[in-house]
Amino acid sequence: MGLVYRHPNEHALVWLYPPTDVNLPNRMMCFWTTYLEDNTIVTSQAFDPFFACMATEKMPAKTINGHTFAEQWSQHMEHVQTTNASPDAASTSEEAILNLVNQSSNDRYSSLLAQGMLRKDTQGIVRPKIRFALRLLWNLWRRPHCKDVKANHEVPLSRLLWLSRVIDNTLRFSPSKRAQGSLFGVSLLLFMVIGAVFWNLQIAILLLAVIIFHELGHYLAMRAFGFSNVHMMALPLLGGVTVGYNVKPRAIKNAWMSLMGPIPGILLGWALLVWVIGYGDEGQLSQWLEITAFVLLLINYLNLLPVLPLDGGHVIQALLPPRWVIIQGMFILVLCTTGVIMALWFEFYLLALLAGFQLLTLGATLQTAKVVRELVAIGVPDKSLTNTARLKPVLNIFEKLVGPCTNARERIHSAKNILTLVDTQPMTAYQRSQIIAVLVVLGAIPFMLLPIGSYLAGDVFVDKVADRVASAYLDGKGSMNDFSQFKSMSNEEIMRDIMTLSNSDLIPLQANIAEIKSVEKNLDIHLPGELFNFYLAYNGLDAINIKPVGEIRKITDQQLTTIEQQMQSDCLNIFISEQREEFIHCISLEEIKQWIYIGHNKAFEQDLYIAPNDENINFIVYVAYGEAYTQPTLRSHLQSEWYYLKFSE
């Protein structure tokens, strides 16, 4: 998707590609190359350090800063003249250009792989190592600043759609676990260093531990709800943040995801405080536990305040019908104004500043309300369309109501938010009552437990509370011991345990080899080895949601139609876990037609399939509500079912 122009005399090439930077939507990507007689390829790239970072001895490159083609050409020729070779006259032929396209990129990657700058992950994707990533960041920081001469010019609709597609492609791939871990580690280090300067090291470590515990709740909730690209960071002096991409937005998920940050910290804080009251002494350990309890309660109750951008504000936002944007705007006004007043009253100046900034979004909220109203009037784009096709009418409405776009980043972000808003499935009355009940209980805990503080250790009431907490703690340890025994259990023992937990009195039948082979022949497949051996021992088992071998069949047209209606694009994203690595495998409807239906999980309304012809899917695929993920082995499937039954018990 690019253009190549040849210089008639200097035997140089200029390469032009559509813009990929939303901050410079009216400037094409541009770089210059000259192939020399000694087989050296000299490259000059305008404002982008990519080629400079990828430079090798045979492919020298530099970042130039010419704002016009004439300036860039002059700087490139100066770069060429620093070499001792002349341009190759034959290098600008069509054949040579095609060879250059294929050869140069491969040579660069091969050279950097050999130098240990890059590595290939389990999916075959080339990723930078830490040293090379730091080099990239350093060059990005030092790159010349581009003054877009058309910065205030209109950005046409077609370019906005192109840039939105670039953003979607970027979000599709998550950073490697190593990169996420490194980024998280650096953020922790910065938090401790800056915290130690402003407070002291002990307080910084305590705050960091409380914040990680809080953000871990959000992280686990996002992973459980199927968010992609989930990772968390510590923000010095501000706290922490967990971000992820919500593939299928639902208000109830958003509410629980917001609540799962404060709830664990609040419960742990009260548990520690009750323990200290009942069993604490004057020692240093009890003092630290008490301080930890108060910090846990302070930070997490503070986060439950119904003020954006705190978790409580997001919960209130999720409780409201998503398309009632005007009502949400009124809540922002009331809640943020209240938040500013309360924060100033208690001298939380940073919180007051954050709440005040939210008031500045009221204009955008009113604008969003107008666009949503217009979009609903003409009809919300069908979810079966591509993201680009769905975004087009939203951008058209923006242009009609607001005017031509001069800020691509802001316009695309607003349009995507509106699509997410209209796509968000609102809560039912029962779900709202659940969330409100949780908020009421969390708010009532202090009033239920604070009177305990008036009792000293030795008071009968406190003793009973302490006994209950200690008993629950010991019971929890027993449960953890049960879980730790899972690794030492055989599949046969796990099966028996599952049947006991599920109150199954049925004695499972065994399938014979001839029966299994007959099914394989009829379906024209080979069952995975683990599943084949399972059927020899158990001819299906309701407790683990696998049907008898005689009832497995190819996916039906009705099941295909259901999956197709719930697909977000022209393929189904499957979350695959393998050897502690996770990646997304996109599978088309044609490939899904080859799947074999083997069972159904009634508790979660999931259909279970195997994909015998897909090497990326090792064992079972779970599909429900347009979301899919896999279990790589029969044992991992048994573990999932066993854990569910244990927790249910």
Please specify the SSE layout and strand pairing:
Elements: E1 3-6, E2 12-17, E3 29-35, E4 41-46, H1 50-53, E5 61-64, H2 69-81, H3 94-114, E6 118-120, E7 126-128, H4 130-142, H5 157-172, H6 177-198, H7 201-224, E8 228-235, E9 239-245, H8 251-259, H9 262-279, H10 284-303, H11 311-319, H12 325-345, H13 349-359, H14 362-378, H15 387-401, H16 408-423, H17 429-449, H18 460-484, H19 491-501, H20 513-523, H21 529-537, E10 553-554, H22 557-566, E11 571-578, E12 581-588, H23 589-592, E13 596-601, E14 606-610, E15 620-624, E16 627-631, H24 634-648
Parallel strand pairs: 4-5, 11-16
Antiparallel strand pairs: 1-2, 2-3, 3-4, 6-7, 8-9, 10-13, 11-12, 13-14, 14-15, 15-16
Helix pairs in contact: 5-15, 6-7, 7-8, 7-9, 7-10, 8-11, 9-10, 9-18, 12-13, 12-14, 14-15, 15-16, 19-24
Provide an overview of this structure.
The structure is a single chain. With 649 residues, the chain is of the alpha+beta class. Among the domains are: 3-139, no CATH class; 506-648, no CATH class. Helix content is 55%, strand content 13%. It contains 24 helices and 16 strands. The chain has helices spanning 50-53, 69-81, 94-114, 130-142, 157-172, 177-198, 201-224, 251-259, 262-279, 284-303, 311-319, 325-345, 349-359, 362-378, 387-401, 408-423, 429-449, 460-484, 491-501, 513-523, 529-537, 557-566, 589-592, 634-648, and strands spanning 3-6, 12-17, 29-35, 41-46, 61-64, 118-120, 126-128, 228-235, 239-245, 553-554, 571-578, 581-588, 596-601, 606-610, 620-624, 627-631. The strands form 4 sheets. Strands 10-13-14-15-16-11-12 form a 7-stranded mixed β-sheet. It has a 5-stranded mixed β-sheet with strand order 1-2-3-4-5. Strand 15 (620-624) and strand 16 (627-631) form a beta hairpin. Helix 8 (251-259) runs antiparallel to helix 11, helix 12 packs antiparallel against helix 13 and helix 19 (491-501) runs parallel beside helix 24. The longest helix has 25 residues, at 460-484.
